[in-house]
Design goal:
Layout (H helix, E strand, L loop, with lengths): L1 H8 L13 E17 L17 E17 L6 E18 L17 E17 L7 E16 L2 H15 L8 H10 L7 H4 L7 E18 L18 E20 L2 E8 L2 E10 L13 E3 L3 E6 L2 E6 L2 E3 L5
Parallel strand pairs: 5-6
Antiparallel strand pairs: 1-2, 2-3, 3-4, 4-5, 6-7, 7-8, 7-9, 8-11, 9-10, 10-13, 11-12
InterPro entries: Csf1
């Protein structure tokens, strides 16, 4: 939508070269107490967008968000243009709100079962390069570089699944939403679901899009709940003021590097993980803001883990894995 909007603004007959004036636009946006919500419904089915209880929403909450956009118009009719933008936000809470028919939200209190992570500092540096003309060999490119510090992630299985849905809904095969009626009509008539490759980028009207994502995480903490539903400490009728998740495995990762490149016919991923240390806690707090780093080490994954995935081929290598289990 944003790319089409920009092209609409720039449409029309080109100006005469003698009247061309180089201009560089700089936009700055400062948000206070912000909330950014993204729909993560299966197959991007959005039937009632204004009713939160009917949708799965992945939300970012924070006290401040600073964003800057640079739009250069310094060349006369260039064959390609690049727009750069960045944003930075400290102390960001990540919440996943599920629809009321989902069993995960049956007994949830406000922000319980929905807080899945916190980020100390979130920074994004990005560029979008697009061509002036539509051609089969022209590929628009979106490059996103995330820098994350002091992150805590509650890695329940259903949260991982919704992150995969997020990728499909915004960068994958279901970028165009549909209502439930439209989705069922496609199923009855035998039409292909999602965005067919031949129609996704409107051949002859727009170029293909390649997305490059780089993620650098410093000082990460991953919480792996051990109980059923991921919340063995979340009991019905529990009115205590300080509930806990239950028994959890805590993984501490000094640094994670992730690279992902994807377009219509190819996907490539590389993952580097530093030495991982872990411990086990029987009563882990529900409030992620009260979590502190633990010095006790129950097991160690040493020295590194490298994963490379390209064209449906997987290569993995690990080095020196040692573990000491404390039982009883």
């Amino acid at each position: 939508m944003f790319t089409d909007l920009g092209k609409d603004w720039a449409s029309g007959p080109p100006a005469n070269y003698s009247r061309f004036i180089p201009i560089s636009y700089a936009l700055s946006i400062n948000l206070q107490h912000f909330e950014i919500s993204m729909y993560v419904n299966d197959h991007n089915i959005i039937d009632k967008p204004l009713i939160r209880e009917e949708n799965a929403l992945l939300s970012l909450h924070g006290s401040r968000l600073q964003s800057n956009v640079q739009i250069p118009f310094t060349k006369y009719r260039p064959d390609r243009s690049t727009v750069s933008f960045s944003l930075e936000a400290p102390d960001v809470a990540v919440r996943l709100a599920l629809p009321r028919w989902n069993t995960r939200s049956l007994y949830s209190r406000p922000h319980r079962n929905s807080d899945i992570g916190r980020i100390g500092v979130l920074r994004l540096d990005a560029t979008y390069c697009y061509f002036d003309a539509v051609h089969p060999e022209n590929i628009d490119q979106l490059a996103l570089k995330f820098t994350i510090q002091d992150i805590i992630y509650k890695a329940c299985g259903w949260t991982i699944r919704h992150f995969m849905i997020l990728r499909n809904n915004y960068f994958g095969s279901f970028t165009h939403f549909s209502t439930l009626y439209e989705y069922l009509e496609k199923c009855r008539s035998g039409q292909p679901l999602g965005d067919p490759v031949d129609l996704q980028y409107r051949e002859g009207s727009s170029n293909a899009l390649q997305v490059q994502i780089e993620v650098l995480v410093d000082s990460g903490l991953i919480i792996l709940p051990a109980g059923l539903r991921g919340y063995e400490g979340d009991r019905v009728g529990d009115d205590t003021g300080d509930p806990d998740i239950g028994t959890c495995v805590i993984l501490s990762i000094p640094q994670i590097q992730l690279y992902l490149r994807t377009h219509d016919y190819h996907m490539e991923m590389a993952l580097n993980i530093d030495t991982v240390t872990g411990t086990i806690h029987e009563h882990f707090p529900e409030d992620l803001r009260s979590i502190q780093r633990f010095k006790q080490e129950t097991f160690i994954l040493d020295d590194y883990l490298v994963l490379h995935l390209a064209q449906q081929h997987t290569y993995a290598s690990g080095k020196s894995i040692s573990a000491v289990w404390q039982l009883g």
